[in-house]
């Protein structure tokens, strides 16, 4: 793994977080179905998902244009309970 140097936009806290995130990603086994591990940045947050980039997107697929509710349902996000 490369060593990161702190800078004005990537301070020591972010260097440490980046190293921890990279270690966590490196620990994920490769997918046996040829999919790629990808960060999905959505309106409701960021998630990791196995994706294929070599398929046509179906017309009824959930996309960035979908409602928050559709995205939440498709990604299986469970809203935290309010206390």
TL;DR?
The chain has 83 residues and is of the alpha+beta class. The chain has helices at 12-26, 68-75, and strands at residues 36-42, 45-51.
Describe the structure.
This protein is an alpha+beta fold. It has two helices and two strands. It has two domains: 1-30, no CATH class; 31-83, no CATH class. A two-stranded antiparallel sheet has the order 1-2. A hairpin with a 2-residue loop joins strand 1 and strand 2 (45-51). The mean pLDDT is 90.
**N-C termini distance:** 42 Å
Please tell me how large the radius of gyration is: 17 Å
Biggest sheet: strand arrangement: 1-2
Structural class given helices, strands, pairing? alpha+beta
Can you summarize the main beta sheet? Answer: 2 strands, antiparallel
What is the number of independent domains? 2
**Total strand count, please?**
2
In terms of DSSP E residues, the strand content is 15-25%
Low-confidence stretches: none
Q: What order do the helices and strands follow?
A: HEEH
- What is the averaged pLDDT score? 90
Helix content: 25-40%
Question: What labels describe this entry?
Answer:
single chain; 83 residues; alpha+beta; 2 strands
Topology summary:
Elements: H1 12-26, E1 36-42, E2 45-51, H2 68-75
């Amino acid at each position: 793994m490369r060593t990161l140097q702190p800078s004005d936009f990537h301070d020591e806290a972010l260097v440490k977080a980046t190293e921890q995130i990279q270690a966590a990603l490196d620990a994920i086994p490769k997918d046996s179905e040829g999919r790629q591990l990808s960060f999905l940045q959505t309106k409701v947050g960021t998630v990791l998902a196995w994706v294929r980039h070599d398929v046509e997107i179906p017309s009824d697929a959930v996309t960035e244009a979908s409602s928050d509710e559709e995205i939440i349902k498709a990604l299986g996000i469970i809203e935290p309970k309010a206390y």
